[in-house]
Write a structure and sequence with these properties.
202 residues; 0% strand; mainly alpha
Length: 202
């Protein structure tokens, strides 16, 4: 009887604490500029860990850890992932810093301590209630994703030279492509240099 009473009191305390926390969160608003609280981060981490199927945690890459596969993963990362995660995996980009939760620093233990299977599963299936989309198709064993996993493992050792090379692989806007084309034409003597003149008003 006494044990049941203690459990009942604990449940009431937890419910009250959650209610108070909810009121505080609502009064503060739901701005994506905020960082998740300790409670949110802890609950999200626990939920994410439970969401991985045990079979996914045990998955092993079918690809050898070769320099060729690493370079392919680097190119894929620069073209598809760097927009949010940055070339170096820091998450220090306009989009990454303004997500809720923020894009994680992939070089740190929170990511590096995940199993290869967990990384693969996250890329393929995304993470609900975050900015991380699902990039794979159900049931696929995607070699490109396994190459990304290999590159993610390499992020803590990424060199300045590698990061500089990745800049040439990042997606470009049409304006940037046009500007590069015109600069190349000028260097080849095919056109006049660009002038920062304002259009004439009529």
């Amino acid at each position: 009887m006494r044990k049941g009473k203690i459990i009942g009191i604990l449940i009431v305390v937890v419910v009250i604490a959650v209610a108070v926390y909810s009121i505080v969160v609502v009064r503060r608003g739901f701005s994506a500029r905020d960082n998740p609280s300790w409670l949110e981060s802890t609950m999200a981490g626990a939920a994410r860990s439970m969401a991985y199927p045990s079979s996914a945690k045990q998955m092993q890459s079918p690809l050898p850890a070769t320099n060729e596969n690493l370079m392919a993963g680097e190119a894929h990362w620069a073209d598809h992932c760097a927009l949010c995660h940055a070339n170096n995996g820091s998450g220090d980009t306009v989009i990454g810093k303004n997500l809720y939760p923020k894009a994680p620093d992939m070089r740190k233990s929170g990511t590096q301590n995940m199993t290869d299977g967990e990384l693969y599963y996250t890329i393929q299936n995304g993470v609900r209630l975050t900015g991380m989309p699902a990039w794979g198709s159900a049931g696929d064993d995607d070699e490109d994703t396994w190459k990304l996993v290999q590159f993610i493992r390499h992020l803590p050792e990424l060199t300045a030279e590698e990061e500089k090379h990745m800049e040439s692989l990042n997606p470009k806007t049409p304006e940037e492509i046009q500007e590069e084309r015109q600069e190349q034409e000028f260097l080849n003597g095919q056109s006049e240099p660009l002038k920062n003149s304002q259009p004439m008003k009529h």
